[in-house]
Write a structure and sequence with these properties.
Elements: H1 2-6, H2 9-16, H3 21-35, E1 41-46, H4 49-57, E2 61-66, E3 69-75
Antiparallel strand pairs: 1-3, 2-3
Helix pairs in contact: 2-3
């Protein structure tokens, strides 16, 4: 779970006390599998530049454009 927050595999390796990166990668694989379940994201739609900026500042990631609107998501 820490890797999904930081995207730093070496930090996670140190945090878990692993001597080999391969061991850490096993845990990262499990965390990715758990969090790809349906409903693990909160979605928001931005109708303006100001709304898009506010979403990014609050931790949302851009997903795509659809019908001129910007769609964002954030892990729960």
């Amino acid at each position: 779970m820490e890797y999904l927050k930081t995207r730093d595999i070496f930090h996670c390796k140190w945090l878990l006390g692993h001597s080999r990166l391969e061991n850490t990668m096993k845990y990262i694989h499990c965390a990715n599998a758990i969090l790809t379940e349906v409903g693990s994201f909160t979605s928001k739609v931005a109708h303006s530049l100001e709304e898009a900026c506010a979403l990014v500042e609050s931790g949302f990631d851009f997903v795509c454009d659809m019908n001129g609107l910007k769609i964002f998501r954030k892990r729960k």
